Amino acid sequence: ETGVTQSPTHLIKTRGQQVTLRCSSQSGHNTVSWYQQALGQGPQFIFQYYREEENGRGNFPPRFSGLQFPNYSSELNVNALELDDSALYLCASYVGAGNNEQFFGPGTRLTVL
Amino acid sequence: RKEVEQDPGPFNVPEGATVAFNCTYSNSASQSFFWYRQDCRKEPKLLMSVYSSGNEDGRFTAQLNRASQYISLLIRDSKLSDSATYLCAVNCLLMDSNYQLIWGAGTKLIIKP
Question: Is it the case that residue B54 has pLDDT exceeding 80?
Answer without folding.
Answer: yes
